[in-house]
Amino acid sequence: MQFEPILKDRIWGGEKLKTVLNKSITSSTTGESWELSTVEGDVSVISNGVLKGKSLLEVIDEIPNELLGTAVYKKFGKQFPLLFKYLDAREDLSIQVHPNDKLAKERHNSFGKTEMWYIMQADTDARIIVGFKEKSNADEYVKNLENKTLLSILDDVKVKSGDVFFLETGTVHAIGAGLVVAEIQQTSDITYRIYDFDRVDANGNGRELHIDLALDAINYEKVDTYKQYDKVSNQSNEVVDCPYFTTNFIPLDGELLAKKSGDTFTVYMCVEGSFEIECNGVQYTYKKGDTVLIPAAVSELVLSGKASVLEIYIS
Fold first, then answer.
1. What is the CATH number of the domain that holds 180?
2. Residue 108 assigned as binding residue
3. Which GO terms describe its molecular function (predicted)?
4. What band does 18 get if pLDDT is binned at 50, 70 and 90?
5. Is 173 annotated as a binding residue?
6. 234, 254 contact by CB (below 8 A)
7. Angle at 165 between CA 67 and CA 76, to 5 degrees
8. Average pLDDT over the chain, rounded to an integer
9. Which residue, of 215, 245, 262, is where some domain finishes?
10. N or C: which end of the chain has fewer CB within 10 A?
11. Which domain holds residue 209?
12. Is the pTM value of this prediction over 0.85?
């Protein structure tokens, strides 16, 4: 299954989702393409095949085991637990933090927001902010926030195409200008914005900040977010394995037979090149920027082509 992209204008967005990923955007400030979502108000609609026009939630309601997988359905019911996006940061995103499951449930009746980033394209000297340079505390954090020196205590990391970062909840972070990113996260749209570089909109208004909410959501320890991983051709190379999702990297240069257990759905995100999936004698073609959902009922498929592909499922 493929889905209609849900395009989001952002103050920091640009045009690379069109120029790099061939998305049909009309704005010069498109920041996000939500590829696969069941967030309230932003539910993905199927764009191909016999189920074209149906929402993902409708299909889950009709065939939960077959789509989600027996283990996923048992754990999450008819909720789709992940959200998949592509982002284009023409400017820096705000510095922000996401609450853990406990806080998010208590305050927003939502999942927390553990996430990972795969850097698809990076301008020269592009960087991200991830966590603190050294162990900090609430008092030091608030003092620097008030003095507008927060950046001095946050870790600033230069990045390049192919880099992966895994951000557990509580990690203060920001995607920097000049990046196109594939993002995999829990199904949640809860973000606490703590600093926005004093930006204002056309009317002179700054965006809402959530400084008080963020205070006890932040992990003040120094964290290691960078993920090293193997890149063996035509093989699933593990990148991230956490309680919320597993992500593998497939450098496809030929063919790969993928067998599935029925426990979980699988999602493929094409981050470079193009490839085909053959399933039950039918061939489907995908290119850079495409995202495809493989229902759990599919037991076997063949991937072929020359591409870099992220493979995501719940283990």
1. 2.60.120.10
2. no
3. mannose-6-phosphate isomerase activity; zinc ion binding
4. very high
5. yes
6. yes
7. 25
8. 96
9. 215
10. C
11. 6-215
12. yes
45-66 average pLDDT score? 96
Q: What radius of gyration do the chain's Cα atoms show? A: 19
- Render pLDDT for 129-179 as a digit per residue (tens, 0 to 9): 999 999 999 999 999 999 999 999 999 999 999 999 999 999 999 999 999
- Same domain (yes/no): 39, 142: yes
Per-residue pLDDT band at 191 (split at 50, 70, 90): very high
225 inside domain:
no
Q: Where is the domain boundary, 163, 184, 215? A: 215
pLDDT at 201 over 80: no
**DSSP percent split of the chain into helix, strand, coil, nearest 5:** 15, 40, 45
Number of separate domains in the chain: 2
* 229 located within any domain: no
Give pLDDT, residue 284.
96
Does residue 115 have a known ligand-binding role? yes
Q: Is 216 exposed, middle or buried (0-12, 13-18, 19+ CB in 10 A)?
A: exposed
Alpha helices, DSSP H only, in the chain? 16-19, 56-62, 64-68, 70-76, 101-108, 138-146, 211-215
In a domain, 226, yes or no: no
Tokens of 3: 């889905």
Using an 8 Å Cβ cutoff, are 250 and 309 in contact? yes
- The catalytic position among 10, 90, 127, 193 is 193
Q: What confidence tens digit (pLDDT) does each residue in 211-221 have? A: 999 999 999 99
